[in-house]
Amino acid sequence: MIRFGVVGLRRGQSFVNVCQAVGDATVTALYDVDEPRVRLVGSEISARPFTDLDAFLNADIDAVVIASPVPFHAEQAIAALNAGKHVLSEVTACQTVDEAAALVDAARRSTAHYMLAENYRYLDEVELLRRLHHDGRFGDLYYGEGEYLHDCRDLWYDEHGELTWRGRGLLGVYCTHSLGPLLYVTGDRVATVSALAVPGGQFDPRVTHAAMHLMQMVTTSGVTLRVRVDHTSPRPHQMTYYALQGTAGCVESWRGGGDESKAWFADEHERSANRGGAEWHPLAEQAPRYIPDRLAAPPEARLGGHGTSEYWMLRDFIAAIREDAPVPIDVHRGLDYTLPGVLAVQSAFADGAPISVPDPRAFGADADQIVANL
Questions:
Q1: What is the C-alpha to C-alpha distance for residues 194 and 211, in angstroms, rounded to an integer?
Q2: What pLDDT, in 10s, does the model give residues 170-202?
Q3: Residue 33: which residues within 8 A CB-CB, separation 6 or more?
Q4: Where in the sequence is the domain holding 103, given as residue range(s)?
């Protein structure tokens, strides 16, 4: 049985449900700065409560889930790795390139595993797109889109009306839910990023940072990607929109209002032509052939709140610990998902000028020089 400690209870409490669904894992320790809350939750699930991080990391736990606010992710992950604890960190991995280099260094020196908990990469639809691409159904894939549109304004204030960490702003664009799945499908990483901070939507004079960004990227294999991240526009949620275009096929996710995800493939559907021709077909028709294992997931796999994504993610993490095998989203891959968002802010300040994204695998002895060159 893998003994987990959870850092941050606002997001971390849902992890307890996923542990129960997966099995072979239990939460035995909790850390949060809210002492009444951590003691209450600890008593409810028979886990030791902590308000001191060092004491928490010295507890009898094998792995740590970092579910605290984003500004603490890198710092707390590094502390856990230094303590020899396996780390499953919520997104994003870090806020600066300096933090990224420090995180890589800690992961390399530690005997423990680090994995980024990018749950959207584990969505059934994303897995379907990955397998369709690997089967060559898109032909030469050359374009992809991702969008994360989520009105989070009610999370920007505490009970006293003061701005929370979300309202005070992040140092990078929270792009991993959109970008991570696209990179999982293509299998490469971003080489350059250019971005624009979209003005408007400022609902509070105390909020001075941009709340919407448009990112345009080119990957190392030449695929062009476009990502839109918007956390404040008043609108229905659109948190899982993806689109892919290749020489032999295309896909677009659902848009709401009764819409469904749809696809067209040259090897199966009508010919694409100037007059008439190609029509959309339900993407779900491809699922029984390509993801029968996902369709057979047990009902309890949905306890995490994002379909079955947390269930599959935790299964992979636990298996890596058990078998001392590589994790699917290791520190390098996690930074592939994160660093374009960090550097997008720099690009936006430079009126959209493209910026090269460093390969975190090159961090190490030359990390200081890499950072200095950015």
A1: 17
A2: 889 999 999 999 999 999 999 999 999 998 667
A3: 51
A4: 2-120+311-330
Amino acid code (one letter) for 332: H
Strand partners, 190: 219
Q: In this structure, are residues 92 and 171 in contact, taking their beta carbons and an 8 Å threshold?
A: no
Could you give the 3-state DSSP secondary structure of residue 264? strand
Q: How far, in Å, CA of 316 to CA of 329, rounded?
A: 10
Q: What does the block give as tokens for 344?
A: 């997008």
Mean pLDDT taken over the chain:
93
Q: What is residue 365's predicted lDDT score, i.e. its pLDDT?
A: 54
Q: Are residues 131 and 48 in the same domain?
A: no
CATH code of the domain in which 152 resides? 3.30.360.10
Q: Is 209 contained in some domain?
A: yes
Cis check: omega of the bond before 92, within 30 degrees of 0: yes
Q: Looking at the structure, do residues 20 and 115 belong to the same domain, yes or no?
A: yes
220 and 154 belong to one structural domain: yes
Amino acid of residue 5? G
| Number of domains forming the structure of the chain | 2
DSSP label at residue 6: E
- Inter-residue contact 178 to 148 (CB < 8 Å): yes
12-68 pLDDT tens trace: 877 887 887 788 899 999 999 999 999 999 999 999 999 999 999 999 999 999 999
Reference 69, options 37, 41, 32; nearest CA is 32
What is residue 201's predicted lDDT score, i.e. its pLDDT?
A: 66
pTM of the model: 0.94
* Distance, CA of 6 to CA of 17 (rounded, Å): 12
What residue ranges in 85-211 does DSSP mark as E strands? 86-89, 114-116, 141-149, 190-197
Same domain membership, residue 57 and residue 165 = no
Q: Report whether pLDDT(369) > 60.
A: no
Partners of residue 195 on adjacent β-strands? 215
pLDDT at 372 over 60: no
Do residues 74 and 82 make contact, with C-beta atoms less than 8 angstroms apart? Answer: no
Does 364 map to a domain? no
